[in-house]
Amino acid sequence: MAKSQISETQSEWQQRVDYEIEVRLDDQKHMLYGWVKMVYKNNSKVALNEMYMHLWPNAYSDRNTPFAKQQMLNGNLDFYFSELSDRGFIDSLDFKMNGTKCQWQLLPEQSDIARLNLPDAIAPGKSVTITTPFRVKVPGSFSRMGHEAQSYQITQWFPKPAVYDVNGWNPISYLDQGEFYSEFGSFKVKITVPENYVIAATGVLQEKEEWSFIRKRRDNPISTFTGISSSEKFKTLTYVQDSIHDFAWFASKYFNVEESSIKLKNGHTVQTFVFAEELKPTGTSSINEALKFYSEHCGYYPYKYCTAVKGALKAGGGMEYPMITVLDGLSREVIIHEVGHNWFYGMLANNERRYPWMDESINSFFEGKTMFGDQNKPVLNSINLTRENGTDWFMEAANISIERAHLNQAVADSSEQFSSYNYGVMVYGKGSLIFDHLRGYLGDEMFYNCFRKYFDKWAFHHPLPGDMEQVFVKTSGKDLSWFFGDLMHSEAPVDYRVNKVEDGNVLIENVGGIKAPYSVGYYYKGELQKEIWYDGHTGVMKHPIPSGAVDLIKIDPRSMMAESNRKNNSYRLNSLFGKIEPLNVDFSIKGYIENPDRTTMAWSPIIGWNSCNRGMIGVLLNNPVAPVQKYNFVATPMYAFGTKDLNGYFNFAWHRYGDNKPQDITFGMKSARFAYAPSDTFTYNRIAPYVSFKFRNKDKRYFNNTVVTLKYTNTSFTPKFDQDAKLKVLENDISTYNRRTFTENLPDQFFDFIVQGDDGQKLNHTSYKLDFQYGMIADNQFMFDSISGKIISKKITDNFAKLSFTFKHRINYSLKNKGLDIRVFAGVMLDKADNGLYQYRIGSQGGRYDYTFEETALGRNQTSGVFVNQVMTNNMFVKAVGNFGNIDGYTVSANLVTDLPGKLPLHLYADIFTFNDIKNHVNNTDQQSFGYTGGVSLRFAKDVFEIYFPLVSSSIITKTQDAQQLTNYKQQISFTLNLNKLTGFSLEDMLRKAL
Predict the structure, then answer these.
(1) Lowest mean pLDDT segment, chosen from 316-325, 396-405, 727-736
(2) Cis preceding linkage at 662, omega within 30
């Protein structure tokens, strides 16, 4: 059922706050010293006995503020690891109402909000004056407010009352993800700075001599390499403006200035400016472009100035304030987007913390229309990666991916409810797409007329969602509950498909969860003949095909609907298989991208090498990887020049996503074929089908999960010799004292039950893996029996069972990206294997003991050379070179790696281990209960390629190496080369991890 938002409507009244602020900048201590007077008028129907005051600079005061906690949750650790000197605060407060001191206190766990207990109630219709001094320590640049050296971003900087509206008080802590809600009023702000600073600010600058200073810098730009000391003389600048709800200013001695103007169709002229240390010549033209489009399609810009500033922003690409915006770059796209916020954040001023779509989604839609109109984005046009409305294809692909993976959230959720990824993709991406859906349904003229009516009624009045819905419904005369209710509030997808064509009718089926209107296009010879919009429905609906020639029917022909699956939108009338798209095998980026009109497969040449097959050449084949697919396959057939045969990988997976536990189910198979002996004697053929169940946290802001996997591995071996000739040798060998045997390897079979967990934290991350494995090993052994004169055979089995547990934990140091990685491994042979190949082992392996052939090894079964020194990253992971024998009982190891200060990729490592009969080891003459090794590692890529230089080892290691003549230090250097990270579904896996 549609959820209407009409109940969420604003009151007829709203409060007003008029500000007078005086502030001085100390650019040596990075301090602001200020005083503020607020005239607060209570236009509500009730008396107010208290007031909530935002003290947003306190968001930067410590690691326990809501801002700091959100940064941690979103994986941004910059503030967590910041120096105390780079943090900020606001203090020296002394609130008085009409001259009488107010008692006040900070809210628990919200040090950036104060509750003022007013000495007298503010009666309806009455005004009071609130005053206080304040001091602000400007933090380093972590979000919006901050400084880099002596370049300042002064935003969310003064004490500001929370909004009191139909829902009561709206106190909101400062957050990086989630913006603001403030009362309208007037501002008169006096700013005192050293006189050689250039200031860009909200409002109208009053001092004519300062305009001369700005235009002198405009006409004579300076280099950022110019050394400028702060002037000892100060200047005070005055800015005034009515009908705004916030004030921001930016200061730098190095700002250069670009100036322009635009005359709007209503006759109003706006002066436009760009302040930046390094200007781009198109800055003001982008501002003018936005002012023109938004004014004509939403409502006219009323202010005298509009300014963009390039600053040290660390909260997205830009942040808007009335009449001014700060950007991290001067691209056309970002300037248009941020200037556009003057309408939805600035003049309409909705509660963006609670309803981010009312600003960001609408503004992202208008940004796209400003930039591209009804045209595709030119750069990507040739490979059809962009929607008609100009929204970047990658944002839409991300939206489709998270919808298919059931990781999406409703567009109407509040800012705090979104995961960091979804805040960008759903609010900016899908939110923009659904407004394009509404535009297509209403038509351009009606759609923009609705927006103009909405703006005319609600500018400067804080509309809520129901207010917008009422205007659009009244203006259009349409039932829009599908949009303001279902499409906004549901996580279900929009998905219609062509069911079939019969008797001159097309049957359209709703296979999604939203009963939204949809369009159908009717084509002939590649040209759209007619497009018809139909009201939404459930089930199947029959529509007559329009008269005239038609050879293709396509749902959503202009890609205006927010559909998650367009692969089922088309039907070709003159094709034997009308629903199946033509095959397109592509040697370009297009092969990796889903094309709704083609069944696409990508190919590219590939080369390979290992010590057994030698050089290989072949082709890489895979289906699209973006957006996320339900099916995935990767095939790499390669011809090996050493063994003169075909080898390679073939991996396949089918994914089922849902919302009930387990949320993700994957059925897959991984297979491989390569030689595995240096003499080119054997080839292994590995087939490993599996099923995995992923249990995710229901709260999509958190990324902890548990994965349960059932896996079967079958490894067969292909002899590369003449078996008949080998048996002939046995027949000819009749010596009683030299009786030979010949072993034929039968397929090895392994059953794994694996449970893996991950807490999803960026700080002090923890994960674990539990693996129970049962192995069934069988060989045929042939022997010539001299008594009977026949070759006899005997089947030899060697089954085993083992249980292992791996625990990983990272302890972060106080320095960013520095910490201690702890890995603990414990394993036990529950049913001992007679063949030591299947038991636990210590030290380098080079793939020799990778009996399931799961690892990608370049030097499998080498007995000499560099690959003998390769250590696999599973099991005990002791980085020691040598053959230390087999462990047929239990084993425990701990691997420690600590980062070193500085930027060099050097680390210290230590491995400690023990096992059931370590004291009986042939080289443990000292009867030690533990062995150890440690040294320095050189890391090229974590978990992929590292080299280990040992500095200290216990006697069990050194004596074993001596016995095996590994006495040269170079022979003792080990390394890891985890090529599994770079093969298989690696690109697909990266996309999934990003979600």
Answers:
(1) 727-736
(2) yes
- Rounded CA-CA distance 508/501 in Å is 9
Which token pair is 721? 């010799």
Burial of 462 (0-12, 13-18, 19+ CB in 10 A): buried
Flag whether pLDDT at 630 surpasses 50.
Answer: yes
Task: Say yes or no to pLDDT of 583 above 90.
Answer: no
pLDDT value of position 28: 96
Write down the H helix ranges in 852-935.
none
pLDDT at 726: 66
| 499 closest CA partner among 595, 598, 574, 570 | 570
Pairing of strands 705-719, 645-657: unpaired
Q: What is the pTM of this model?
A: 0.90
The strand pairing partners of 523, in sequence order, are: 528, 552
366: phi then psi, degrees, rounded to nearest 5: -65, -35
Q: Name the nearest CA neighbour of 196 among 220, 214, 221.
A: 214
Nearest one of 504, 633, 623, 490 to 567, comparing CA atoms: 623
Contact 375, 369 (CB under 8 A): no
- Residue 878 burial by Cβ neighbours in a 10 Å radius (0-12, 13-18, 19+): buried
Helix or strand or coil: residue 797? strand
Pairing of strands 249-252, 96-97: unpaired
**Is the bond preceding residue 557 a cis peptide, omega within 30 degrees?**
no
Contact (CB, 8 A) for 9 and 464: yes
- Kindly state the tokens that stand for 176: 């990086």
CA 171 vs. chain centroid, Å, equals: 29
Which runs of E-coded beta strand occur in 658-727? 664-675, 682-696, 705-719
Q: Of all residues in the chain, what percent are helix, strand and coil, respectively (each to 5)?
A: 20, 40, 40
Among the listed residues 583, 555, 584, the one whose alpha carbon sits nearest the alpha carbon of residue 571: 555
**What whole-number distance in Å separates Cα of residue 132 and Cα of residue 158?**
10
Please, what is the average pLDDT of the chain? 91
Q: Do β-strands 324-327 and 305-310 pair in parallel, antiparallel, or remain unpaired?
A: parallel
Kindly report the backbone phi and psi dihedral angles of residue 413, in degrees, each rounded to the nearest multiple of 5, phi listed first: -65, 160
In degrees rounded to 5, what are phi and psi of residue 102? Answer: -100, 140
The two beta strands, 89-91 and 96-97, are unpaired
- Taking only the tens place, the pLDDT of each residue in 761-791 is 999 999 999 999 999 998 887 776 666 667 6
Q: How far is CA 204 from the centre of its chain?
A: 40
For residue 715, what are the contacts with CB-CB under 8 A and spacing of at least 6? 684, 685, 686, 687, 747, 748, 749, 750, 851, 852, 853
Q: Are 602 and 624 in contact (CB under 8 A)?
A: yes
Helical spans, DSSP H, in 511-624? none
Identity (one letter) of the amino acid at 86? D
Give the CA distances from residue 974 to residues 177, 849, 870, 939, 970, in Å, rounded to whole numbers and listed in that order: 45, 16, 6, 12, 9
Token pair, residue 179, equals: 């913006």
CA distance 770 to 755: 5
pLDDT of residue 5 exceeding 50? no
The per-residue pLDDT for range 350-404, each reduced to its tens digit, is 999 999 999 999 999 999 999 887 654 433 333 444 444 444 677 888 888 899 9
Q: How far, in Å, CA of 413 to CA of 316, rounded?
A: 20
Cα-based angle 682, 673, 592 (whole degrees, multiple of 5) = 160
Q: Which residue has the tokens 């396959």?
A: 633
Non-local (6+) Cβ contacts of 394 within 8 A are: 385
Contacting residues for 986 by C-beta, under 8 A, at least 6 apart: none
Which ranges constitute the DSSP H helices of 178-307?
Answer: 208-219, 283-297
Instruction: Say if residues 744 and 780 touch (Cβ distance below 8 Å).
Output: yes
User: What is the distance between the alpha carbons of residues 370 and 458, in angstroms, rounded to a whole number?
Assistant: 22
What's the token pair of residue 214?
């700005």
Could you say which DSSP state residue 567 is in? T
Q: How far is CA 210 from the centre of its chain?
A: 45
